[in-house]
Design a protein that fits this description.
α3 packs antiparallel against α4. With 393 residues, the chain is an alpha+beta fold. The N and C termini lie far apart (56 Å). β16 and β17 form a beta hairpin. The strands form eight sheets. The chain has an eight-stranded antiparallel beta barrel. A four-stranded antiparallel beta sheet has the order 3-11-9-8. Strands 21-28-26-23 form a four-stranded antiparallel beta sheet, with no helix packed on it. It is 20% helix and 37% strand. It folds into four domains: 56 residues, no CATH class; 127 residues, 2-Layer Sandwich (D-amino Acid Aminotransferase, Chain A, domain 1); 112 residues, Glycoprotein, Type 4 Pilin (2-Layer Sandwich), CATH 3.30.700; 67 residues, RNA polymerase II/Efflux pump adaptor protein, barrel-sandwich hybrid domain (OB fold (Dihydrolipoamide Acetyltransferase, E2P), Beta Barrel).
């Protein structure tokens, strides 16, 4: 049953769907009923074994739709090979919350341009709304997807909104909370320092393994330092590392941060506590950098020796190429048509091309007056995101 509610809490009937809804796991979690089983039994001619009076509501449940889409690009779909797919562990957790994942995606599978880009439904249950929201935020932190873009950062941002946590929702929620669109998240200083501390410990672990290499010249063995510089966003943070009682403590300018957690080199997920706060952090290695994903953002940290950090400050910043004279495909898709030819003058707002993705046609228009210098793609071409379609003079 679907209704619409006005500002005075008047309910108006919209429709009744005699099928499962995408949100049916929420109903199952708070009622304890298996709706799929009940539907199959009814279809087989059996009578419902319950009455309406038998249906109770217990606790709170949330469902997050994990999609292959780019929230920072207007939620445009993303396609490609899923190179890593490791959802959070399902079942009951120590705090009493429950995590459930409904999905048909697998590692090595492909998200194509022809179908709905949903990857999974992530569902949590807990006795209270706040607990269910916290469980969802932690489960999102542990949901590992690589190879395609996804909306986990946006879903995490929702969990952090006090208005969402309070349940003060309307159909204008996203427009009001993100009036200029979603542009990603950045860690606050407290979370940043926890991640800097964790990065220092993880790097020290890797450096200690490197120091065990055989064949070192006598008298010139590699010694692992205790003093490092954690560098993020071209900002240097001095970090002193010490060990006591099986715990590592990293002292930053903001104070000491004790790091406790089991992690082996090569593992893509770290779980433990930093400064007494429980954290779930995804760990990736990109060149010499550690990429720590937590709280909806990917934090890139280089842990360097003090001398290397000094030299890093002298390195120039590589600027991206100027692509302002190109019409680029905003998404992976099929080029349905190109409406202009080389040498043609175009006006702002004029249709240039049509790209089809996820069963939807997207019209690409000129942002300014200009002249077509070259058409790089032809009708029927399969386009990658940011692939050149048209070049202007």
């Amino acid at each position: 049953m679907e209704f619409i509610v006005d500002k005075d809490r008047n309910f108006y009937f919209l429709e009744m769907n005699t099928r499962l809804q995408v949100e049916h796991p929420v109903t199952e979690m708070i009622t304890g009923l298996d709706l799929v089983e009940l539907m199959i039994r009814v279809a087989a001619g059996e009578h419902l074994p319950i009455t309406q009076a038998d249906v109770g509501i217990h606790g709170w449940s949330l469902e997050a739709r994990v999609y292959a889409e780019e929230p920072t690009r207007g939620f445009l779909p993303s396609t490609g090979r899923v190179t890593r797919y490791r959802p959070p562990v399902e079942g009951k957790r120590e705090d009493g919350s429950i995590v459930r994942v409904d999905t048909g995606v697998y590692e090595g599978g492909e998200i194509s341009m022809y179908y709905d880009p949903m990857i999974a439904k992530l569902i949590t249950w807990a006795p209270t709304r706040d607990q269910a929201t916290d469980a969802m935020a932690d489960a999102l932190d542990g949901f590992q997807i690589r190879g395609v873009g996804h909306n986990i950062s946006f879903l995490t941002s929702l969990m952090q909104k006090q208005r969402f946590r309070d349940g003060r929702l309307t159909t204008n929620f996203i427009a009001e909370e993100y009036p200029d669109g979603f542009h990603g998240l950045t860690p606050d200083p407290t979370v940043r320092d926890r991640l800097l501390a964790l990065a220092t410990v993880l790097h020290h672990r890797r450096a200690s393994r490197d120091a065990m290499i055989s064949g070192q010249v006598a008298g010139h063995a590699f010694h692992v330092a205790q003093d490092w510089v954690a560098r993020a966003d071209r900002q240097n943070h001095k970090a002193h590392l010490s060990f006591a009682g099986g715990a590592a403590t990293v002292t930053l300018d903001s104070g000491p941060h004790t790091v406790l957690g089991d992690w082996e080199i090569g593992q893509s997920l770290w779980q433990g506590t930093v400064a007494g706060v429980a954290m779930t952090v995804q760990v990736d290695i990109k060149g010499t950098s550690l990429v720590l994903t937590h709280g909806g953002f990917a934090f890139v940290v280089d842990v360097l020796t003090p001398r290397a950090a000094e030299l890093a400050d002298l390195m120039p910043v590589k600027l991206p190429p100027d692509m302002s004279k190109y019409l680029l495909s905003p998404m992976p898709g099929l080029l349905v048509s190109v409406s202009v030819k080389e040498g043609e003058a175009v006006k702002a707002g004029q249709e240039l091309a049509v790209v089809e993705a996820m069963k939807m046609e997207n019209i690409l228009r000129a942002e300014a007056d200009g002249t077509v210098k070259k058409v790089h793609a032809v009708k029927g071409a399969s386009l990658a995101v940011d692939e050149k379609i048209i070049e202007f003079e």
